[in-house]
Structure of Ubiquinol oxidase polypeptide II:
Amino acid sequence: MRRLHLIALLPLAAALGGCNFVVLDPSGDIAAQQRDLLVISTLLMLLIIVPVMALTVFFAWKYRASNTKARYEPEWSHSTQMELVIWSAPLLIIICLGALTWMGTHLLDPYRPLDRIAAGEPVPADTKPLDVEVVALDWKWLFIYPEQGIATVNDLAAPVGRPIRFRITASSVMNAFYVPTLAGMIYAMPGMRTELNAVANAPGESRGFSSNYSGAGFSGMFFRFQALSDADFNAWTSEAKASEERLTRAAYLELERPSENVPARRFADIDPTLFDAILNMCVEPGKMCMKEMMAIDARGGLGLEGVANVLPLTYDKHARRGTVFGGAPSYVVGICTPEELATALTLSAARPASRDTALVRGAGLPLPALSGSLPAFTPISLPSREPRESLLGPRRPSNS
């Protein structure tokens, strides 16, 4: 019989064998502190859960119907000692959890620069963090190393013991950047920049991925993370610099197109302004950057006089870049009221398919008549510059 029980447990053991406990065995100091926070919080909650479950079984067994020796007190209604135990224990645990959460929220803030490499090992004063600019694409990850002048796709590396400062954004939809062995998850959003500070404490290789569903190729949106020694990291950088590919703005627009299960790629040279253009959604030529638009808004907007300045720009006149959604580019050529639109549609329907195209000869002769009856049109003349200025207010005097 025992053998049958053991055989029945084999599928459960096989299922548990596929689990990866990397969250509980990280190699980075930030991830290790998050692991400790998770374990301590769980143990604190078990201080209530375990006694409650044990007492439930105990009372069910002791006061069973067949136990005639159990005390029977139908008039019992209150116990001050029991009330004190029932309410004080959860209250103390909630206070501990609240204090732990408050400290963890501030000490493990992803925007907070690191003050230690590991427990008892502060960051040396002359240590410069490794800057890595991260862009979540459909469905791959782009890593830009501005200091080294290289970029990679689905391949991330960092030296052991050196703080890493990630600056993260996205090209189209929201994603979540997550390397379980390194640090916690943080979102990547288009037009916004999030930050994450982390450090790797031991050499090794692990897997990073997106932990926020982002479409058809989401399941293949993962990358390799390598924690390397300084010598190995320099060799990895030199290997990337030997690549023949260059990450220009045109190359980025091609890379940005949706693709699935993309192999690792390396770029030996990068446009130093690329990440800022991605963040401000102005990689394409002719687009106004978001920071420029916000600066104009901060100064009070363009006004009527500024319409001509932005008319040639192509910002927001196309469908979402690099995707299969959306139609052909469209433009707004005029603005009218619903009444004017209805009149225009009526006139268009009444207009004949053809008209007399004979040339008009002679001065003062009328235009060829159109077939059918149409409402009379009153010519509209544009106001002169002086009345137009009077509508907008007096012109400001020139400083000259």
Notes: Residues 29-62 form the longest helix (34 residues). Residues 370-400 have pLDDT under 50 and may be disordered.
